[in-house]
């Protein structure tokens, strides 16, 4: 994984980073690099994070009055539940609301949209050096050169996960390449993927010319990535993300100033940066100041090349038991392949250990438990797997919920327990890592998270992003390993400490984290998918069959739309938050070939399964109605893998599972879609 920053401007008075004072600053080119991890940490990364170590005055006031706020909130709730409100009660309600407002009002009018407290966006090269360094703590470089009346500044950082190590940017044949990601092309599974891109560029440019060679190379890459390529011969900058958009990349283009800035991270949430889209590549002609956009789709068509990703859906419905069994078997095989690609291409994980150490962002629910089990199954191919199942819980001041009693914490412990027993005879050690987030920690870090997740800027984005931030971050938690694999769940619950090896101050050093993101979009996991079948006519009516097919076709289109926009809705935000800790997130459900299989080979009625049942209603009594089971085939796979405890677990959004939504008293009426 890498961090990318690339600035192109017509200005000649370019400021260089403070760290490279002196030699060569007045020249037409300059290059500086370091692989000293301690120096990178002390000079850049610590500086970038130190602002989060102090509370604002308004936050201090909230924290010091938190008990009073809870008592006021309880009194207010009792008054709100009063059926007949007297004038005295109404007056009391107003007084309580005014007191809550008085405590929670931000008297200093802090601008929460920036990392530094300043209302100005910090576009300095020193700020970008610090930001980019957080994504790649093993190597950092700065490049400057002048080309065709344009000034270029490049910052690259590297988290070394593939060998041999290759510095960035990679300069050759009048090209300058920055690449952030992981490739799974068969030719580069056992080598460095940046070197593979270089060889592919050499070959394609030799056969098809510079522009077509570069574009052919990019669209032939199989994996999760973002990139910039500067072609000094043709005076072009190529940049973009993979076809799904699994790695963050943003840009700000000012046509009047003849400037383009590309970055893995935004300088703040006051900036003009916007997400590069999935399925789009951009080309900037810096000699003529023209920005062009191309889609992967049109490039595949122009070059008559077959894409790794196909969103051509099956329109059939499947009811045959034998075919359903085949679908489940193939689902298992395809997901296993996706997991294997992503765990076998992590080397060196730790230079002084043969053990594979990876983590899973873990709620204990269906998607991540299937994923964790898949990784355990793949452990037979590696020396030993140490698997951290990282779960977070928030101390919620509004609901007075303890981190240890959140729904995800309870479910994650149940799933970890059963996974430990299920794979007790394998070469995998399954560890539960519990991270408790206090209200004070939430106050300390929320400004940083708001800046990282930009341009996403809603209450829901914050509640999701901050959960991933703490799950992936350098925070101590409680690590548990099951010592007695013969104990029952009931006996374990009664006296769990007796059966555990515990480390109360454990910090996970897994550099690669796996995420179950994508399962809901592929297998119809959201309520909006289920809502498509509301008021479905009864199966004994004449029009039922055609209507049922029609609604399934609508479901297919809805799922494809979800995949097409997941880069904007989730992926950029999550990548920026997790990678800011120098860790990489991988998405087995969002592998191009796996998506193509699920879309093209698994029928929609196996994703959202409709059954007809007699359901008791308070208003209508017993009624015969359609009951939908979301992610049905994934649940069948869970059963086949022996994950029966989670097979029927309902969907629970992460912000409600960890209680990171509406963290503050006075937020009860806030909606997830509200802007921050």
From TrEMBL:
InterPro entries: Asn_synthase (IPR001962), Asn_synthetase_domain (IPR051857), GATase_2_dom (IPR017932), Ntn_hydrolases_N (IPR029055), Rossmann-like_a/b/a_fold (IPR014729). GO terms for molecular function: asparagine synthase (glutamine-hydrolyzing) activity. Keywords: Amino-acid biosynthesis, Asparagine biosynthesis, Coiled coil, Glutamine amidotransferase. One of its GO terms (biological process) is asparagine biosynthetic process. Residues 163-264 form the Glutamine amidotransferase type-2 domain. Residues 508-663 form the Asparagine synthetase domain. Residues 62-89 form a coiled coil. CDD domains: Asn_synthase_B_C. Pfam families: Asn_synthase (PF00733), GATase_7 (PF13537). This is Piso0_002109 protein. It comes from Pichia sorbitophila (strain ATCC MYA-4447 / BCRC 22081 / CBS 7064 / NBRC 10061 / NRRL Y-12695). The gene is Piso0_002109.
